[in-house]
Amino acid sequence: MKFDNQKGFTLIELVIIIVVLGILASVAIPKYKSIVAESREASCRGSLGGLRSGVSIYYANLAVTTGTADWPEMDSLTTIGVVMEQALPSNPYQTNAPDSIVTGVTKGTIVGTRGGWAYLASSGEIWANTNSVGENSW
Length: 138
Description:
By secondary structure, the protein is mostly helical. Helix content is about 45%, strand content about 10%.
């Protein structure tokens, strides 16, 4: 029996393909991790934008309807339909306590490991209750 008509890859060709795939993977994996970090930061910025907008609208609406402007209390933030029309968004850095809010802290101070959001009712400031780089710098 003669096998002159066989088709396929040689061992050298297969090794070269594996090496090329390894090089591509070593370039792609760090880029993927960078994209994941950027998406978390963008998600955090978007959530904070919505929260801050809701707090500001509440403040302005109260000023127009009652003549006295005041920032919402923490209970108003977590009650659907008072400040926010939907439930509080999750903090993308720590989702173990997505609807938790801590109060009475200074900006930049992280309280515990609960995650969630930090809110200062005296000034209406709200920020991510986490120490991940990037999300609290704006």
